[in-house]
Amino acid sequence: xxxxxxxxxxxxxxxxxxxxxxxxxxxxxxxxxxxxxxxxxxxxxxxxxxxxxxxxxxxxxxxxxxxxxxxxxxxxxxxxxxxxxxxxxxxxxxxxxxxxxxxxxxxxxxxxxxxxxxxxxxxxxxxxxxxxxxxxxxxxxxxxxxxxxxxxxxxxxxxxxxxxxxxxxxxxxxxxxxxxxxxxxxxxxxxxxxxxxxxxxxxxxxxxxxxxxxxxxxxxxxxxxxxxxxxxxxxxxxxxxxxxxxxxxxxxxxxxxxxxxxxxxxxxxxxxxxxxxxxxxxxxxxxxxxxxxxxxxxxxxxxxxxxxxxxxxxxxxxxxxxxxxxxxxxxxxxxxxxxxxxxxxxxxxxxxxxxxxxxxxxxxxxxxxxxxxxxxxxxxxxxxxxxxxxxxxxxxxxxxxxxxxxxxxxxxxxxxxxxxx
Length: 421
Ligand SMILES: Cc1cc2nc3c(=O)[nH]c(=O)nc-3n(C[C@H](O)[C@H](O)[C@H](O)COP(=O)(O)OP(=O)(O)OC[C@H]3O[C@@H](n4cnc5c(N)ncnc54)[C@H](O)[C@@H]3O)c2cc1C
What we know:
alpha/beta; FAD/NAD(P)-binding domain; Rossmann fold; 2 domains; 7-stranded mixed sheet; 11 helices; 23% strand; binds flavin-adenine dinucleotide
């Protein structure tokens, strides 16, 4: 059985790009439905907003570097939307987080200067906009760092992290706190829930305080709460009497889930709908217009009719684009043309894992308004776009935010123009 529903706009994908686009559309007055087969990279990635970290040398000031960067990369998403479109999207994101369900939790920074923060293994990584709970980890500070591990969290290696921070020239050492979380092993999500509890934090501080030396700042895995991270972080700083900062962990990512929770709350507050577990299989068309998408949920197909579609399905990582056994890449829902494919005979991948990978820049071919070239009303945002290599550039969430915002704006402008015509 197939049923049908009607919206002004359907967004496919619930990563940062899809959520950003959907919120902007809903706030602009559109009736919006977001369809996603599952959550996106939010639950895996560190939760920082990296806009431009490398070009390929490390970028200190993204605002100053972006004009030259887009000049050198005319097919890059930032070149299509123009660097001036990035700052408003970042401001909007920061405002949404502050307004979100996690009281007092906020992001800090912007395009003027990248923060330099340790990764889970202590390598130093540039990022433009970061959770306030991570900011005190900036590697420009020479204040000694004590990296705190917990035996129950096996995915976080405090001594490895501290060793690499030391290599970056900052005095650092590791300690381990034995704490009872009610089970032998926990992941970041389980621990984040425990840190929401004040009595757990008090017990944790009771053990940690004995291990700290005067003048040290404290690095903890990013597990300081899910419901009230600002409260948990402030409480730890107050109890320990020193700066505390979170270091991203291996997935799952508590800071990424905080982003997801805040953006979904903003979508719902603006009147938007989210259907999770809805895999979009194909579309209905009239000429070059897509009039609806067919999604499969719980053994049931539904046609979601809409005037506008925003495709935010991620790239290869989330299945928005696939590489077949015949080495042919394809966009999985509409079969849209791709751009950036290596030519026949050219290498698709190289042996150096972290080196230049030609396939990484493949994405859906769009015009300068992010409209998919063969369609009248499908816009593309985020990692499904061509021309970027987020892993090497340190640009993933920046692209998702800025293009999500831009694609929604393009739809609203055309909708407004149609209404006044
Ligand atoms: C582990 C990890 C770490 C990362 N670390 C960094 C980092 O440090 N710095 C950085 O700059 N970038 C990083 N990135 C990259 C960055 O997170 C992504 O580039 C960015 O989040 C992409 O967002 P998106 O919204 O475009 O896509 P995604 O977040 O991938 O979301 C895609 C969405 O589309 C949905 N979808 C796909 N196909 C369908 C379909 N047929 N029907 C319905 N739904 C569908 C998926 O379920 C998902 O909801 C990391 C990514 C990962 C996975």
